[in-house]
Please model this.
Amino acid sequence: MDTKKVDLLSQKDCVAYTSKRYNKAFKDKVFAVALVVPAFLMISFTILFPLLNVIRMSFLKYSLMAMQSMPWNNFANYKALFEDMEFVNTFGRTLVYVFSTAGLALVIGFSTSLLLNSGIAGQKLFRGLIFLPWTVPTLVVAVLWMWIYQPQYGILNYILNSLHIINNNKQWLGDVKLALPSVIIAAVWKQMPFMMVMLLAALQTVPKELEEAAIIDGATGIQKFFNITVPCTMSVMKTITLTSVITNFQMFGLFFTMTGGGPVKATTTLTIYTYQTAFMRYNMGKGAAIGVIWMAFLILFSTFYNKMMSKKEAFSI
Amino acid sequence: MNNKIKPIKYIAITVFVFIYLFPVYWMLSTSLKTNDIIMKLPPQWFPQKPTISNFLSILSDIRFLTFYKNTVFVATCATVLSLILAVFASYSFSRFKFPGSKIVQMVFLSTQMFPAVVLLIALYSLYKSLHLLNTYSALILACSTNALPLSIWVLKGFYDTIPVTLEEAAYIDGCSKLRTLFQIIVPLIKPGLIAVSIYAFLVSWDDFLWSLTLVNKVQLRTLTAGIALTYLGENSYDWAKVMTASVSASIPILVVFIFLQKYMISGLTAGAVKG
Model:
C-alpha cells in the first residue's frame, strides 16, 4: 500500500517538474512525509501503540487469565508495588548492575583505545581481534560463561585454584554475593569492544596540532590527557555511555539464562521482575505499572543527563 | 624514552588480547572434545584428540537445523525490511524539512528507551488478537524494529555527507525525486548500507526475548531460544553439545564480521563520531 502511494507521488512529481515548477514547496513536503510514513507506521504498530496501551493497562486490573474484563482499579497496581520492598530492592539491584557494567566497559574500553592509539603497529589487527566478542550472540555469551563458571569442571575455578587465589570451588552463579558480579563480568566482556571501537574512532579525530602545541607549552601527560584528550572525546563518551545505560536496563538474555534471577533474587533486575510478574504470575497490570515507573525514570534520567553533559561541554571550550 | 615504552605496550596489548579472546577459544576447544575428556581435571588446554563427532551429532539433529533455518530466514527478512524503511526515512530526515520533522526524529531515537519486556505486555495481547503469535511475521517485525532507530541515524549521517548540488543537477535534467534517490544517491552511500545491513543482521541474530515469547512452537523457534530451551533444559551437563551448538550459532556471524568488519566499524563510528 505504501509503495503504491510513493509511486503515485513520483509520477505526480514528474509532471510537476517537466511542466511548471508549480507548487514545488508543497510537493517537497508531501514527498518528505511519504518517505517517513512506512517507518513510522511500523514503529507505531510495534512501539508507540503498545506503549500507550501499557500506560493504560497500568491503571487497570488486568490478568492474562481474564483478558475480557479490565476494570479501573484505583492505582492498586502502583500501590501493590510499594507494599513490599521487592520493587525498590529490584530497582536498586538494577542500578548496581547497569552502572557497574557501563562504567567498567567505559573505563576498560577507554584504556584499551588509548593503548591502541599510542602509535602501535598492527592497530587494526588488535582492534579486530578485541572486537570479536561483541559479535558473539548474547545467548552464546551466557552459555559460554556458564561453562567457564561451572563449579566442578569450569576452567575459572581450576585456574584460580592452581594459582592458590581460592582454595575451594566457588559457586560463581549460585552464590548470593558472587552471582551479580559474575553476570557483570560476562556483560562487560561482550559490551566493552563496542565502546573501545567508538572511542578509538573518537581519539583519531583529536587534532594533532592541539597535542603538539600542548607539548611545546610544556604540558605533562596527565594535563594533556585531561585538557585535550578527554574534552575532544567527550561527546562520543557521552553518547555511548547513555546508550549503554539504556540497553543494560533492558538486559534480559544473560540474566534469564545464567541465573534466572536467582539465587534468592540476587540477580532479579527490572527486566526479570517485569517478566515474572506479567508472564509467570499473570499479573499484567502490575507488570505494566513496573514498566511505567521504569520508563519515567529513564526519560527523566536521560533529560537530566543531557542537560548536565551539555553544560560540562560548554565549560571545557 | 619511546623505545623503552614500546615493547611494554606490545606485551600489554598481546597479553590483553590473549586473555580477552580466551573464552572464545575455550568454547571452540570444548566443542572439539568428548564429554569424558571435558569432565576430567586437569583440563586439556589443547584438545589432544580433536573430534568433530559433536558437530556431526548436532548437524544431524533435525531440531537444530530447523532453528538454524528459522534464524537465517528471520534475520534476512528483518534486515531487508529495516534497510528499506531506513533508506526512505533517513533520506527525508537528511534532505527535507516538514512540520514536525525534528519531533519525529526524536521519537525514532527515543524508542530505544522503551524496554522491550514492558512493550511485550501490550504486544502479546495485540498479537494474540491479530493471530500474529507463532508466526514469522511477528519475529521479523520485532527484529527490524530493534534495528531501525540506529539504522536511520547512521544512514542519515551518510546522506548528510553528500552535496545537495548532485540532486539539484538531476532534477534539472528532469529526473524524478524517487529516481534521483535510487540511481544517484543510494549508490553513493553503499558503505553505509553495508554497515547498517550487518548491524541489523547481528541484532536480529542476537534476539532472544522475542523468539522466546512470541513463538512457542518448536518448528518456529530461532537459534537463541532454541539452544536455551532445548539443549540447556534437556541435558544441562552435556557441555560438549551445548558448546558445539554455541559455536555453530556464532560461526555465520563471525564469517560475516571477518569479511565485512571494515565496513561495519567505519559505518558505525562515522555517525557517532560526527554527531
